[in-house]
Amino acid sequence: MNKNLKRQYIRYGTKKERKDAVDTEAFAVHLLTIADSYRTSDIHILPEQKHYDIYFRLNGQMEKQYYLDRDEGTRIISYFKFLSNMDVGEKRRPQSGGMTFQLSDKAIDCRFSTISNYQLQESLVIRLLKQKEEENQSPGIFFTHEWNKLEQLVQSKAGLLLFSGPVDSGKTTSMYHLIKNRTSGEKQQVITVEDPVEIEEKTFLQTQVNETAGVTYEHLLKSSLRHHPDVIIVGEIRDEETARMVIRGALTGHLIVASIHAKNAAGVIARMQELGVSTSLLKQTLIGVAFQTLLPLYCALCEANCQTYCTHYARGRKRLALFEVMSAKELESITENKGSEREPESILVKREFNHLLEKVFMNGFINEKTYKRYYISNA
Ligand SMILES: [Zn+2]
């Protein structure tokens, strides 16, 4: 950590307090080093009645890693709050912050957020942003058919390609990979608009939202369009304004690849309409929709989803991506049917995603619990 910050942090207090501060720092470094080596996406420091538990999210599941007594827990949370410029004394209001943490051999970018329960016990979540080395790893996939379809779609000169899927389903990795493949061997300008930038990619112009500095999605998108890039990657379509600009970009000859929150591929259409995009504009711009999930692999050695320490599936390969991809033609049947009956779209979705999920299950790649968990029900 930054030497000045460290000095500032341990300068005050009694001898015991100073010792605790040093212990806290050592533990913080240890915690982040271990978390990074496990490739966890986030660390949760959660209060229990009389102590704190620390969990890592590994392969999509929360795994308990550490037990801290109440003082230790409070101290480590205060420490991270201090480092990431949050108000250490403030416990009522949820806060967020970020910082780059220097470990012995590398720097990792972290995002922090706190929230308190009604008893004013704070919990802290640390998000570890993806590191450089992971970016070169192609996403592990179940079916090449869908992936090939996506590779074809990103060859389009212009249009809108939308991704959806749960949090931590690898959407960014997929978008980056597809665009990187498209642009390999020739100079094309790719601009990304994200909050935050998760994967570093030298060949892209990566921009990041900074609300406190007044740099919003809208601003960045507007200036990106003025740059006339070949491709724009948009981290998330969150509101009507971004939806409108994404459509404008697609209409004016850019390929826009964006993610949007929706329960399934068909839900993407509904969400865009909800954000004020008309069916005819969608028809003119949308070239495809992908819905992506990462499924934990069943391991015969673990007799469960493959665990962190098991070597049967390599770390970072304990989950594979399942895609549902719909091209413009397939999407047409959805947009056509929209407004009259909801029935046809749900039948379509059921056949597509659930059918593939079932195939994965029947082949023994995932267990029944996973199958049931990811099955998209009609409700
Ligand atoms: Zn295993």
Automatic annotation (TrEMBL):
Domain Bacterial type II secretion system protein E: from-to ranges: 225-239
Q: Which residues form a coiled coil?
A: none
What is any one of the record's Gene Ontology cellular component terms? plasma membrane
Q: Which GO terms describe its molecular function?
A: ATP binding; ATP hydrolysis activity
Q: Which InterPro entries match?
A: ATPase_ComGA, P-loop_NTPase, T2SS/T4SS_dom
Q: Which UniProt keywords apply?
A: ATP-binding, Nucleotide-binding
Asked whether the UniProt record includes ATP-binding among its keywords, one would answer yes
Q: Which family does it belong to?
A: Belongs to the GSP E family.
- Which protein, by its recorded name, is this? Competence protein ComGA
